[in-house]
Amino acid sequence: MVARIHSLGGYIYEYKKSVANPEVFWAQIAENFHWRKRFTKVLEWNFSNPDIKWFIDGKLNITENIFEKNMYTHADQLAIIWEPNDPNEEHIQLTYMQLFREVNKFANTLKRLNVRKGDRVAIYMPMVPELTIAMLACARIGAVHSVVFAGFSAQSLSERINDAQAKVLLTADGGFRGNKITPLKQIADEALESSPCVETVVVLKRTKTEVNMEVGRDIWWHTAINGQSDECPAEVMDAEDELFILYTSGSTGKPKGIVHTVGGYMVFTAYTFKNVFQYNAGDVYFCTADIGWITGHSYIVYGPLLNGAQSVMFEGVPTWPDAGRFWDIVDKFNVNQFYTAPTAIRSLLAQGMEFVNGKKLTSLKVLGTVGEPINEEAWHWYHDHIGKSRCPIVDTWWQTETGGVMISPMAGITPTKPSFATMPLPGIQPVIVDNEGRELTGNSVEGNLCIRFPWPGMARTIWGDHERFRETYFGSFKNLYFTGDGAKRDEDGYYRILGRVDDVINVSGHRLGTAEIENAINAHPLVNESAVVGYPHEIKGQGIYAFVVCGELSTGGEEGIQKSIRIAVEKIIGPFARPDIIQLVPGLPKTRSGKIMRRILRKVAEGDASNLGDITTLLDEDIVEKIIDGALVEVKR
Ligand code: WT7
């Protein structure tokens, strides 16, 4: 078992050790795992190429570390506690032994479908146990899973399938979310019209929605697994073999396939899970994220299961049947650690105490947040009303690319401050640099957040585009990994994340590239060009504000075009990327060289144009006045 830090003194001691000799530090943690062949060297790296390798020559399988390694002690322990969307449906519990058998069965199914080590398997599924089973089955046989969040559109799904050249797609007839059904198979069918690389589609029956099954390509899940053995030897993987690809948005239009590898990701997620949440054997842990995002990968599936934890997986949404759903689940399973996003907290806070009063919430020991900065009001509400002022809050800062938590309190150990992610975990060396890349040393500084030294869970590349990986993360500041976030280090040395400094926005904890939304808007036949920025939104953190230049208005007029743009974005990306505000403008503020001055648009969207800074480089200064006049929010001049 991975060692757990117990005190602030222990943290300081471990942190110092991890900086003085990172290789010894991580090797000691890695020793706790089951390696088929021990690694011969801990780390090789350079950030200029970049090239990062951890646990060199080590051979292992991550599922052996979840199952075989713990089977003597954990066979009958619960691994997954699954709560369905509808509270009237029975929940499902799987012990480690039961989960192991299901994983093996599905691993054998994949093999029979001709999936081999290194092949990519796309997964477009609702939050059901079979999703976890599918991911682990891929890991068991060395196939690379690429989970696509079930809120993405057909076009986004197809793009991701094609980029990874997946040969199998796992999906379901539909997915329940609140009182809605997402027709997953129908969306998948549409996606596959432009994804010829997929040879086989396995379809889980969940909503009993009528679906089309294509002969020779589509097979029902229950038919496919029928008769498969529940024993399947683990494929022996190199520590640096790929475990999965997960797509995320960047500042340019095309999503990036972030690649994580087996050994480092395993060590990092297991270590961070245990220490951040201070998980103890027997605790029940509940992360509300969707497995379609990195939080679900690292902290519903891999981190918890590598620790033999009991992980709650919830199919539904926080507000259905009512806004007390999370708290009912906490009481139902006596959840000890609860992990969610600030946007969820804000939306539940807005519904009032009626949905909290009457819930016990006495089992809770630790509360976590992730995905975006948490404002003080939400922090205090969470702390006082959910944690009853006795549960530490861990505000965990990390990214798809970091694989696991980087800067965060360790529950009950690190003194917290509302809206501060506090201190780096052992092994993590953050630095703050100015725009010229000069390191800002000491306390009370603010700038670009970078990391100076590799950590085992870091992404190794962007699938099929290593040059983009270099440029995006290592191209801005020499020999530093650049996070894309701004941060401040306060007078106590505590880190506060200030949000993205690139053209990425964070909407309800979903990361979206503004360029991606612009591309979708521009695809509309009546749109000439557009610019998208984020603006402060009470519930979502950031809302989406689109400035759009149209050639002419169709018969529906302004409202008609706004509506059809929203539909277009929904179709190209997914409903969660729909703009909140669409302002039709006569032109965009551009410099003489043709670059859109987003700074000005951001100011307008924020409702404060009192200090626009230097606008003399604009081609047409009048346009700014016109944009402010037509703004759909109140703008201070
Ligand atoms: C971006 C990464 C990591 C899991 C979910 C999001 C923002 C993340 C925090 C936090 C302030 C945060 C950053 C980061 N972010 N956690 N605790 N405080 N901001 O993963 O989609 O890869 O997004 O989310 O801006 O860069 P992601």
Secondary structure tally, helices: 19
Major beta sheet summary = 8 strands, mixed
Structural class: alpha/beta
CATH superfamily of the largest domain: ANL, N-terminal domain
Shape from CA axes? globular
User: What would you say the CATH architecture of the largest domain is?
Assistant: 3-Layer(aba) Sandwich
Q: Uncertain runs with pLDDT below 50, 5 residues or more?
A: none
Provide the number of structural domains.
2
Distance between the termini: 60 Å
Helix fraction, binned, reads 25-40%
Number of strands: 30
Bound molecules: 5'-O-[(S)-butoxy(hydroxy)phosphoryl]adenosine
The fraction of residues assigned to DSSP E strands is 15-25%
Main sheet strand line-up: 12-11-8-6-7-14-15-23
- Rounded radius of gyration (Å): 24 Å
As an assembly, this protein is: single chain
What is the CATH topology of the largest domain? Rossmann fold
Average per-residue pLDDT, rounded, comes to 96
